[in-house]
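Can't paste images in this forum, so I'm doing it all in text. The chain is below; anyone willing to post the predicted structure tokens underneath?
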Amino acid sequence: MKNMMRKFGLLSVLLLWVCISLQAARVDTLMVHSPSMKKTVEVVFIVPDQSCGENPQSCPVVYLLHGHGGNAKTWIGIKPELPAIADEKGMIFVCPDAENSWYWDSPLRKDYRYETFVASELVDYTDSHYATRADRKFRAISGLSMGGHGALWLSIRHKDTFGAAASMSGGADIRPFPDSWNMKEQLGEYASNKDVWDAHTVMSQLDRISNGDIALLIDCGDDDFFLEVNQELHRQLLSRKIGHDFITRPGAHTVTYWNNSIDYHLLFFQKFFAKGEQVGQ
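Text version of the structure:
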């Protein structure tokens, strides 16, 4: 009888260990309604195990923006480990499909109001449907290429919403590329709409922020065609005495670079969230 009870006890411990080891972040792929665009938008939510269940623990949120030609599933394709990272770091990842919008509210297309969607509607949806730390001190945004532009554009224009932002291989200045990536479909031809293009580049938004308003990370490979505009952004931030991290590493505009970059960005955000905890104590 004692041997049987001992075996039963060992089996119980083993089953408990298996159950714990099987716990993993939940990946939800949902269609989120956008009132401003009058349509639904696909969004992938990666939710750590600790934020699920009957007694969810509130977690900080990181919005991850895809590049031109990408979609809501781009990031989990680039970094399949994101669910495990969500569990490890206790972060919720939100990955919206923003088409080829450049994350603007297009002056020409009423169905392209992705600034409003991501910075307002999606944030409200996320905070009302998941266990989040609904405060800018625990909300960050990052993206690659077009999404890097989006992360900077949205954070600078909505600094009360996002406390930290990071850009990898980002299109920090769109004006040197007037015929590329569907931008003129939203802004018009550059030659006849220079004022519109000037108003929709990150470079024109820097007067909106002061030192310390946002925790900023700029990251670009030394063989990337966006390197020059990122270096100019770095110079502009320095001239304004706006603190930021600037990283240039060997690499190009590639999935390999972004797979590595996101690790740096999440560490940057983790430190930012830790400061938010200290402020709250």
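Residues 30-280 form a domain with the Rossmann fold fold (CATH 3.40.50.1820). The longest helix spans residues 255-280.
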